[in-house]
Write a structure and sequence with these properties.
Layout lengths: L10 H35 L3 H4 L1 H20 L5 H21 L3 H22 L3 H4 L5 H30 L1 H22 L18 H21 L2 H7 L5 H23 L6 H22 L2 H13 L1 H12 L2 H29 L2 H26 L12
Length: about 400
């Protein structure tokens, strides 16, 4: 990839990189907003916890479809205009959710959120080479993707904290307001980013290594969200944790996840398979330990360390596989459909069996990924493509 759009001296472009990272943080936090608020929203809108879990399923499925579709069909359009439009759509979805009088309206709001998530993430992930000089591309890409990783582990505790003081509607309204602030920031910092014709990337987007990473993404992310979507009901119903303990536990999970993200990012560029299998082992240990021994604080720290590094490790493996922009969009699609499927499967198990059984479901799916990495990972991570971060 080239950096023809980036000037030699680019302090302003690093502001743009930071703005995009803040945008990805806002998007993914919005996607996972219902996790920490699930019990409150279900009671307020008169649905079961399992049905409320569809607030995760709907945007995940929509984002999964919109990522590759928007990346390909809008490839000729200025990416700056696309990012601004998608951020405006996110603001509308969050504010609509804050005002939703019933559950169908809430689901409609979550569909709007899903379109924004899929399109923005797919475009933003490949912007590093267009915003900074070539030697800094790897670092810029890491900063942009850190918005996704940090949101994945801090968004839920932040929303839970706001909700504990002002209610779940305030949490949605705050994210809507945040999206409007980001819209202004992106408009002020992003340069024109003319579209390109990316049809030539189609062949590289379906390579064998990339297919393996996509399968691993589905197993790991679906396993995680099958369990994590219902971690608050589990703590309340099984370990009898009160609101304060729930908030502290999710906050510790978030802090551990941030540490896992940066620890994995420092090691995964050269050997993503080895790093990923370690992360998956931590996740399985955390999910299985909750129903066995309780101790939500210590267990969620272990779980957070594992999942916190998954996103950056999978993304580095995607870069190594050489799938190009469409490959990244397919990864975004797989990631989001996995969120949807995991939340849906967890909801069926939570309603049909118990919230304890949901933890075992998550552990089983994630353990399957560990087996697959052990069998095929070493061979599949050795294409002739150098990860973007190694030349930075």
């Amino acid at each position: 990839m080239t950096t023809t759009d980036a000037p030699a001296a680019a302090p302003a472009r690093w502001l743009a990189v930071t703005s995009v990272a803040a945008g990805t943080f806002t998007l993914v936090t919005s996607e996972m907003l219902p996790v920490g608020l699930l019990t409150e929203i279900a009671a307020s809108l008169g649905v079961s916890d399992g049905t409320a879990g569809l607030m995760m399923t709907a945007p995940g499925l929509v984002a999964a479809a919109s990522a590759p579709v928007l990346a390909f069909t809008t490839r000729r359009l200025d990416r700056r205009i696309m990012l601004l439009a998608l951020m405006a759509l996110l603001a509308a979805g969050n504010l609509m959710g804050a005002l939703a009088p019933n559950y169908p309206v809430m689901l409609a709001a979550r569909v709007l959120t899903g379109v924004s998530i899929g399109g923005f993430w797919a475009i933003a992930a490949g912007l590093g080479p267009r915003l900074v000089p070539e030697p800094a591309v790897g670092r810029a890409t890491s900063v942009i993707l850190s918005g996704v990783a940090v949101a994945s582990v801090l968004g839920v505790p932040a929303a839970t904290f706001v909700s504990s003081f002002a209610g779940w509607r305030t949490a949605f309204a705050a994210m809507g307001a945040g999206a409007l602030v980001l819209l202004a920031l992106l408009a002020a910092t992003l340069p024109p980013l003319p579209g390109t014709d990316s049809r030539g990337a189609l062949s590289g987007a379906f390579s064998g290594p990339l297919r393996l990473v996509l399968v691993l993404t589905v197993l790991i992310v679906a396993g995680h969200f099958a369990a994590y979507t219902y971690v608050r009901p589990f703590m309340e119903q099984v370990t009898h944790a009160g609101p304060v303990l729930v908030g502290v536990a999710l906050l510790l999970y978030g802090a551990a996840g941030v540490a896992g993200n940066f620890a994995a990012g420092a090691r995964a560029a050269r050997n993503p398979a080895a790093v990923l299998i370690t992360l998956v082992a931590l996740m399985v240990a955390g999910m299985a330990a909750l129903p066995l021994i309780g101790l939500p604080l210590a267990v969620l720290v272990v779980w957070g360390l594992g999942y916190g590094g998954v996103g950056v490790t999978l993304q580095l493996w995607i870069m190594r596989a050489g799938g190009g922009e469409l490959g990244t969009a397919l990864f975004v699609g797989a990631f989001n459909v996995s969120i949807a499927l995991g939340a849906l499967a967890g909801g069926r198990v939570a309603d049909g069996v118990s919230v304890t059984a949901v933890m075992w479901l998550g552990a089983a799916l994630t353990a399957l990924a560990a087996v697959l990495i052990a069998v095929r990972g070493s061979r599949a991570q050795q294409p002739a493509v150098t990860p973007a971060g190694e030349h930075a």
